[in-house]
Amino acid sequence: MSSPRILLVTCADLPGGYSDDAGLVRALGEAGVAAEWSRWDDPAVDFAAADLVVLRSPWDYFERLDEFLRWCDSVPRLANPASVVRWNTDKRYLTQLSSAGVAVVPSTIIAPGEPAAWPAEWAEVVVKPTVGAGSVGVGRFARERRDHAVAHLTALHNAGSAALVQPYQSSVDTVGERALVFFAGRFSHAFAKPALLDGRPARTQTDLADAEVVRPAQASADYRAVAEHALKTAAAQLGLRPAELLYARVDLIADDTGAPLLLELELSEPLLGFGRTEPSAIQRFVDAVQTRLRAN
């Protein structure tokens, strides 16, 4: 009986995947799973023939979103599924989760044609496209630079993008973000990410990943509780069980009282922090892949 074959999906700029995933092919091979890297837009690859197709670093997707989503729809055994990718690549999902009771960073969506309006008490705001990766296209503006924030919002609208406006959480400057990683609905590990909104020009997703000098971290009970609630709520809205999501990364930051808030729920192509955590993490990912293969 031949080994199951999976394809790890990347983009043209990273033909062998991103460095954080460097051990995946070997770890999967040692478990009897043949894995190889493939560009999502390579017409020579028969993705439908693979036993499983796993999105890892297709980080040009937001520049060609419609094409990418059509490709996702065409892949029968995609992890995470195309319906999840379609929902998760538009940050409007944050307002849906907030309405469902998840503790989310306060968020206002401003569509093209709508005026620039957000709560006056937000002294410093972050303005970002609702579809985008990392901090590409994201700006941070103090109250006295509101005209710059409006100009950035206008530029996003002129490019055809709706905008997400949030109050900047000052805790990011001192403690950064906490990323909690789950495989098949089970908590695996956590890592800390530094603040990246430093006023420099927007960079590519790969540059941003390189800038994220992540380090191992612990996940306290309150952070775990918010992360698990966010994951369960999202899965329910998608008509899935958390165990049906091969991976999830829940990014949390603290409010002024120290309470955790959801900043992002990454279900499409997140960096998973394998390079900066214990070796057992990659084995937990392999175990989740094997479970998914048995279920297919």
Quaternary state reads single chain
Summarize the main sheet: 5 strands, antiparallel
- Tell me what portion of residues adopts beta-strand conformation: 15-25%
The CATH topology assignment of the largest domain is D-amino Acid Aminotransferase, Chain A, domain 1
Number of strands: 13
Q: Name the structural class.
A: alpha+beta
Instruction: Give the N-to-C terminal Cα separation.
Output: 16 Å
In angstroms, what is the radius of gyration?
A: 19 Å
Return residue spans where pLDDT drops below 50 for at least 5 consecutive residues: 198-203
Please work out how many helical segments DSSP would assign: 9
Which whole number gives the mean pLDDT?
91
Shape: globular
What is the string of SSEs from the N terminus onward?
EHEEHEHHEEEHEHEEHEHEEH
The neighbouring-strand order within the major sheet is 11-10-9-12-13
Count of discrete structural domains: 3
Question: Judging by the overall fold, what is the CATH architecture of the largest domain?
Answer: 2-Layer Sandwich
Q: What's the CATH superfamily of the largest domain, by name?
A: ATP-grasp fold, B domain
CATH class designation of the largest domain: Alpha Beta
Percent helix, as a range, is 25-40%
GO molecular function, one term: ATP binding
Protein name: ATP-grasp domain
Keywords: ATP-binding, Nucleotide-binding
InterPro entries: ATP-grasp (IPR011761), ATP_grasp_subdomain_1 (IPR013815), DcsG_Biosynth_Enzyme (IPR053191)
